[in-house]
Amino acid sequence: xxxxxxxxxxxxxVNENLRYLEHEGxxxxxxxxxxxxxxxxxxxxxxxxxxxxxxxNSEFLTRTLVGMLNSSARWYNPEGSRQxxxxxxIYAHLLLYGLSTSxxxx
Length: 106
Description:
The protein is an all-alpha fold. It has helices at about 1-5, 10-15, 25-50, 60-75, 85-95.
């Protein structure tokens, strides 16, 4: 979330305009995007293998997490009431426990 807060304008531009790039530019950015997704997916899969995370679809969870981060570039306000670390903590809680007031049994 710190990265998103620091680079929110660039992230918003890439997210909104990626489809307009010519082939070579698109391929370059898409390669970086795939590498970034792979890092997140690897961490999620390690958590699943270690039994720390439920064994769900890692691709879906990765895209969900990255989608939350990418959307933050649109609405995050550095002068707002929440700092990046607090937002990251909320995102982690949402991803790990959902909105439920009780945690499911392991």
